[in-house]
Amino acid sequence: MPLLCDSQRLDVTLSATRIAQMHSRLEEGAKALTSQPTQTFGPKGFLYVQQRELAATTSKDSAISILGSDDATTCHIVVLRHTGSGATCLAHCDGSDTESEVEDILQAVKYLSNNTEDGRLELHLIGGFIDKRRLSQKLSSQLLRAFDNQSDDIHLITLCVSELNDSEEKGIHLPIIYGIAVNVKTAEIFKASCEDRKPDDDLRSAYTFTGGTMLSIYDAKKEQLSIGPYSWIPFPNTAFWLEQEDGQILECFSTSPQAEPPHFVAHIRSTFQFLKENPYPMKSIFADRKPRVYRKQLDGSWERVLSQGT
């Protein structure tokens, strides 16, 4: 079955704004979500999902209660949950391979759900704004179509994308919501800022920056986060880019320079420095060809798991 809202099939050829207008619950939900105060999450019980990553777990997880991601401008944050099992997946999508990513999101939830017929799949799409290149609108359409193409019934609960997530300040369009968190125990969705991006945030960013595809980073059954092993071709001219002015980096490496959060350039510089120091990660980081595995501690820190098989 296709993508549904109130038991009606959505016309995914329409814009997000038009879809919301035809389904008042979606329009009201977007207004309610954008009106929320931003809450800060992390580190206790929190798992941060970077761009081109997904993480899935269930309400029975003893280590993780909140999944979250932020810094989304033209990117979209996707939350898919099965009401029966409580299995919840959060992904940060940038349009690099939307159809494949949607399949991965769906499979991550179904893998943690013993019986998908006992309950239903509920979808939340958040992110984007009215950007000059219309990348947000393109990604909104891609995601709606990709979910509509799945064989499972998927019920759209939240649609807060592109025009529905747009504000204008002095003639400049900006996203209202940059980040989202979901409570995997209660299924609540929050407008969020994430203060904890660990572990291995530079390593994970470098993988995405060099063209890595979306990866699932969390094993809910073991309650462990797994990073890598990654490989990449040495990124060219890292020393050159580290010498450039902030404005140059912003213009060259952002899809929406006027809408980026204040720490965007510092984040890119940190990634460049990491790539400069680790041109061949299979030698410098993953010489043993094994992932870096972590477990969340009660105080919110991530402890490296050094055991057989890791």
From TrEMBL:
GO terms for CC?
Answer: nucleus
Q: Which GO terms describe its molecular function?
A: protein-N-terminal asparagine amidohydrolase activity
The record's listing under InterPro entries reads: NTAN1 (IPR026750)
Pfam family name, one: N_Asn_amidohyd
A single Gene Ontology biological process assigned to it is: ubiquitin-dependent protein catabolic process
Database matches in PANTHER family:
N-TERMINAL ASPARAGINE AMIDOHYDROLASE (PTHR12498), PROTEIN N-TERMINAL ASPARAGINE AMIDOHYDROLASE (PTHR12498:SF0)
Name the record gives this protein:
N-terminal asparagine amidase
